[in-house]
Here is the input.
Amino acid sequence: MRHLALISALATLALARVLAAASAPVVDVGALAPLSEIRVTTAGSTVTIEWPVGASASTAIATFDLAPEHPLIASLATRARRDASPRLVGHDLEPTTTITVGQRDLARNGWMVFFDKVNTRPSQRFPVKRALTAATATSTTTRAQLTLTGVRAGAFSGQLVFTFYSGSAFFQAETVLHTAENSRALLYDTGLVSAPGQITRYTWVDPKTGALTHADLAPAPAPAPTPAPAGSASASATSLPTPLPVKHRVVIAETATGAIAAFPAPHRFLYPLDFADNFGFTWAGRDQLAPGDGFGVRQPPDGDKRFVPWVNAPPGTDQRLGVFYLVSDAAPAALAAVKRLTHDDHYVALPGYKTFTSHFHVEHTLTLLKAQAAADNTTEIPADLRTPGFVRALRGSGVDIVHLAEFHNGQTPKLAAAPRLAQLRTLHAECARLSDEDFLLLPGEEPNVHLGGHWISFFPRPVNWILHRGPNEPFEEKTPAGETIYRVGSPADILTLMERENGLMWTAHARIKSSIGFPDAYRHEPFFNSPHFLGAAWKAMPADYSRPTLGWRVLDLFDDMNNWGAPKQVLGEVDVFKIEPDYELYGAMNINYVKLDRLPRFTDGWQPVLDVLRRGDFFVTTGEILFTNFSVNGAGSALPAPRNPAATVRVRAQLDWTFPLAFAEIVAGDGVHIHRQRIDLSTTKSYGTQLLDETLPAKNWRWVRLEVWDIAANGAFTQPVHLN
Here is the structure.
């Protein structure tokens, strides 16, 4: 009887598998490229994708099982060469994605928002569930994509999209969700879960020590929790992934035969915050919503507990909630491959350029003055401030020049002359002390007085100025010691100061935060149209995962400003507060590559830095894409370009990148309209160089600039070249 019962059970199981396979969607393979470097095959309910992972003959293999109730990723494997047997890395892996949906406050600034606290209002957490209705496999020469339609999370629905890149050991997994509801902001956690016992340990880099760290899994799975009613809100800690602070935003799951690394897009994934602490952007452990051993990436709901805007999810948009998985034979090799994509979170040296970054509210000066006052007004530098954490962090990231934005508090504009000058003198002295032949720390402020909105000041040498001016006080005076002191009380005073000291100013976080409506509101003012008003600063804010680029807010303004008339530049800004070496700084940063052969000495002044910015002889990048030899009709960024009789422009730039590229865009203006020409770069692979050389009709064009974006929304853009 037992024998008959076993036969019956096996037959029932076999029938269930057959029925499950029969109910899987048929894969549409009609758009596969016949000469693709990526091989896509189907058999029953499975789809197998094999793609080259580097310059050698090695490949990676992913097999998907589309049958309901089966783990979606049947296996991940590597193959040393095409004629070798596959080496299984992992099997029966279920992608798990959970979204947290909150309410966006649109009353204040609409979708152009930072000053929101979505975390303080009710939200709901929904696991993404799949009931596949269609499957499509497509490919080009160097890329392949598997699109699975039929997933839902609350009022959101959409697809799972897996994209594979010839020459890369990673693939991209995206949950693409759409909603018709308005006023929604969201977060997501995503990763892979396997049955207990397959993953032997997790590996990551400790952000404080930089050491490779491991955690062996507990031998027994945790008991499954009681499921919550469908669609219910959950604030229980047991329903959330366990945060894991790591360096380089990567966590690796090791198996007996290989390793799988999970990591997000380095700059797109982190929604903007005032602080860049490492809040634990990865997770690992027992997953409570899909029980098993899991690992992946996560977004902290409470951020830095100041303004926590989450991510815009406007109605009618497709939010692409992504993660990358890298398949490798061993954890060290996987880690090295992920780190290489961001140059080890380092801004690489580029001959003829120096790296420049701006807008840091580290408040080192006020911290030092407070510490000295607490120590009976000593002038000694406390040990913990001799080499501050922000200096160590920025120097370690490959930054050559740092422009501060100190005294960012409401008291500074009201300070009397004596305390104001004491602060400035300390700031100047500390910048001089912390600068050397390899690192230049420069004073700067976000003074936010008289002009409207928020703005940044930058002088080519130490300048003493007071932010208010009484009716009987002079604009300029000399102290008995021979110092010049300025007092400003109007836009005209500020412009005169900038002219007198050959300084620069620009709009901070234009069109958002406290600069909503600026610089638009003062575009006709003399100070804005002077060569001492640089333009605006760029940062990836707000966040919206339906867009293929970052920082469109300022890029749109960039084009508007140059169509208004006077040439304007846009430089990258970071706009964060306290920084320590273990913070997640790279994900929040961008960098300016300024055309300088050598670093100025602090004691000689740094006029060359301001001159390069004013000329526009620099480009902005998140770090993964670099430009060299950019020109329009043979003229570089700092020069006006000649027009030619054919009314065309020739745009040339040497590109260098890490992630495969997505597209380039040539942007131009005629004083009224913006013209865009998108150039498809989807044939590129990881770690390439290419000469971009495009000739376009340019009737009535006044200026031209270039943007380039990759598959992770990392980007770079030039300053505009104006046509004679």
Summary: The two ends are 95 Å apart (CA to CA). Confidence is low (pLDDT under 50) at residues 1-19, 219-240.
